[in-house]
Amino acid sequence: MSKLDDYSSPDPIAWCPACGNFGILAALKQALVDLKIEPWQTAFVSGIGQAAKLPHYLKCNLFNGLHGRTLPVATGVKLANSRLVVIAEGGDGDGFAEGGNHAIAAMRRNVDLTWLMHDNQIYGLTKGQVSPTSEKGFHTTTTPDGSYYPPVNVIALAIALDAGFVARSFSGDQPHLTWTIKQAVEHKGFALVDILQNCVSFNKVNTFGWYRERVYKLSDDLKYDPSNRQAAFLKAQEWGDKIPIGVIYRSSRPALEAAFSVTGKTPLVDQPIDWRKRGKLVNEFR
Hints:
The protein is of the alpha/beta class. The N and C termini lie far apart (50 Å). It is built from ten helices and eight strands.
């Protein structure tokens, strides 16, 4: 059975002290151990950014690709070997600027993978530009007059696309984040976890204390039903004085793999290759 040390990498961590990524890393390792998932059973896919560095600090299978191209690779990994627990890792910039179209496509497809999106409302690795989730009017060195654009509502967009599982958590509440990641990994279909986190270097507005004063847990509301899409849309609009965290929406539609006979029962990596057919196909393109 896996232990926390089994996931611990000896590589030095390059994040700033007190970065919200530390809480995400700790919660993720705890979630995998609680679920009794061994490192060799996981496959992490990440792009570029401080958030995308997280799998580098784990002992795991990892594909580190291009900026914003995390989800297409993760989709391919899962379709090729459905036995793997596939987790895509990245930030709000990586996911909804460079990777915006890929995010939309992945949520529509509903592939059985988990996307942990570190949402600090800023570009951290490239020194503090506004990101797609930055508030309108947000001041940075590249937007001295304030950001002109309204932020992308990640949760509302995912619900509109009928993503299989849509949740939000906070890096400063490790027990809640651990629980949320476990729920996401166990869901059969695409699972988005929007993780609110602080950036101590470049975002002096959405700080740890700012989030702590505003987040509240949906699990405390026994009447809330995450399968109610209209209610989920209403929750997605809450931002400012009150920010809900927890499972916001859960769809019952089947994962993409179940829709195709070639991937529904046996992983592609275990299926025999008919070399005669392969040769015929290759010859057609010569």
